[in-house]
Amino acid sequence: MPAHIGTFVVCPTAQADTKANPKRANFAYPPDIGNLLKTLNTFLEHFRIHFIFLTRIVKTLLFKMDNLGETIRKLREEKELPLRTVAAFLDIDQAILSKIERGQRNATREQVVKLAEYFKIKESDLLVSWLSDKLVYEVADEQVALKALQVAEEKVKYQKSKSKK
Questions:
Q1: Is 118 helix (H, G, I), strand (E, B) or coil?
Q2: What is the domain range of residue 33?
């Protein structure tokens, strides 16, 4: 069982009322965190439900729908950091970082790797966002963009399987 669930609880505890109605559950909120974890564990065991925690959902939305610049800005603002602090870490002018955040300039791969290190997030998450931005920029105006991306995916799979041999 994870040690940290999140900032707030989305799921009440449940105990099955099997005599009256086996499908019905009576919900009661525990008075403290110790009871919460115990009752949550009971709830999970009873219903055998696998939960996706809120942080994963937020992370997925953050990296999949925002462009890299928006992601960087959200990460920076979440930590209440000024542009100059992050720009200094990247060894770039804050005007350049501002343009990256606004989507007016592209970050380099090296900058993306440094940002992942700085914000203590997975490098692959930021790199995926960076690469997907590059792909979208190249194919956005094409009518056959999705088909081309599907073919490209197959080519990448083929190249990987070929290089393993």
A1: helix
A2: 13-51
Is residue 100 within 8 Å of residue 93, measured between CB atoms?
Answer: no
The gap from C-alpha 32 to its chain's centroid, in whole angstroms, comes to 30
The amino acid at 155: K
Burial of 59 (0-12, 13-18, 19+ CB in 10 A): middle
Number of domains, the chain: 2
Of 110, 134, 135, the C-alpha closest to 123 is 110
Give this prediction's pTM.
0.57
The CA distance from 38 to 33, in Å, is: 9
Whether 154 maps to a domain, the answer reads: yes
Determine the pLDDT at residue 141. Answer: 86
Amino acid symbol at 149: L
